[in-house]
Amino acid sequence: MEVINTIGRRKTAVARIYMKAGDGKIIVNNRDYKEYFPTGPLQYIVNQALQVAGAEGKWDIKANLDGGGITGQAEALRMAIARALCENNIEDRPALKKEGFLMRDPRMVERKKAGQPKARKRFQFSKR
After folding, report:
1. How far apart are CA 16 and CA 119, in angstroms?
2. Tens digit of pLDDT for each residue in 64-104?
3. Which CATH class is domain 4-99?
4. DSSP bridge pairs for 46
5. d(CA 95, CA 71)
6. Per residue, what are the HEC states of the chain?
7. What is the pLDDT of residues 8-50, one digit of tens each?
8. What is the pTM of this model?
């Protein structure tokens, strides 16, 4: 049985997954993904790539998530799953690419600058 290993990133979140043929279990950081991502929209994001490829219930996925927030982690996991599906079956690539699941979203938080309260915000100017 072949195990597919891929990585997905979003903001500062990193998802490393191990995908093998199975009955559709998704384990995230040693917990079920529905327990790890408690809201419906986040669970939907995780399943999007599997739905587009028509591979729901065919793969067991074990994921290690690190960094970032819960939304960034869900989108990083979606990207990792999409990459693994492409590695398994190249015919899934056009559909996944069209949905934008294979593109790394480069937007990150801008760093705080010295002498300012935030990245762009300035302290209040006082003439006198």
Report:
1. 30
2. 999 999 999 999 999 999 999 999 889 989 999 999 999 99
3. alpha beta
4. none
5. 23
6. CCCEEEEEEECCEEEEEEEEECCCCEEECCEEHHHHCCCHHHHHHHHHHHHHHCCCCCEEEEEEEECCCHHHHHHHHHHHHHHHHHHHCHHHHHHHHHHCCCCCCCCCCCCCCCCCCCCCCCCCCCCC
7. 999 999 999 999 999 989 999 999 999 999 999 999 999 999 9
8. 0.89
